[in-house]
Automatic annotation (TrEMBL):
Its EC number is 2.3.2.26. This is HECT-type E3 ubiquitin transferase. It catalyses: S-ubiquitinyl-[E2 ubiquitin-conjugating enzyme]-L-cysteine + [acceptor protein]-L-lysine = [E2 ubiquitin-conjugating enzyme]-L-cysteine + N(6)-ubiquitinyl-[acceptor protein]-L-lysine. It comes from Vitis vinifera (Grape). Pfam families: HECT. The keyword Transferase applies. The keyword Kinase does not apply.
Amino acid sequence: MVQELKGRLNVQFQGEEGIDAGGLTREWYQLLSRVIFDKGALLFTTVGNNSTFQPNPNSVYQTEHLSYFKFVGRVVAKALFDGQLLDVYFTRSFYKHILGVKVTYHDIEAVDPDYYKNLKWMLENDVSCIPEMTFSMDPDEEKHILYEKTEVTDYELKPGGRNIRVTEETKHEYIDLVAEHILTNAIRPQINSFLEGFNELVPRELISIFNDKELELLISGLPEIDLDDLKANTEYTGYTAASSVVQWFWEVVKAFNKEDMARLLQFVTGTSKVPLDGFKALQGISGPQKFQIHKAYGAPERLPSAHTCFNQLDLPEYSSKEQLQERLLLAIHEASEGFGFG
């Protein structure tokens, strides 16, 4: 079966004539990905800015849902194997699952920025003054994760968790367990079935040389980014379009190659996907949200940071165009996570 999957795929549409010289295969992959990721199929759901997908925790309502996930894993792997691009973008945490990389609480920001802020507050403050906090999720929190289920009980993050208090010494463990539960446990059967199909064709050791952003570009390709359109649909806070830092920014970005342009879009919006209707249709966590450039206060040599749920780039007031270029390139290439709400 696996050897057959590695063979060349020839596509012929029923009732249509045509020799598959590559175009029909490309069209087949595009059509298939649209059907698989249609919300009506219940397999995947969009989160955050409504443009990135991850397995739906309620796919259980779809009969044979796990065999479908295995099939989807095979389709994504076969597309990679054949060098075909798919019209689909996953959440950062799901790319990490494919790569076998541990998810962290930073990955929650793209899914639920308010919850992320609460966890970040816990790390930065003394939690010993919150006696009612235990190693468990209350029913309201569970309902938020499994949003379509009507009957939800609390969930223990570890055995006996509802009776174990979270202290200053154990809060890092608590946050790790919360991230694992929200981003993994709720969809673990779906993830495992997807990976079972995916790894038949593409073993983990082959794919693990890439990071999550590179994997997105491998699966979905480098986007065509219209810089004039992006510039026309950008809003500023603390700066204006006439600010020297803003003008340097656009001059630097204009000189970017296609890969760095895609990385910039990933860094600020969480995905390299360009909206079909252009950047005026860019979505944030609460609906339409244009590309944002905010003035970042603090040390002038710090790296730019981003809040992907708001399509927001926090740009320090650099002293030269050269410094801005060096800092921006470093951020989009090296900064994997840990930015935001600082």
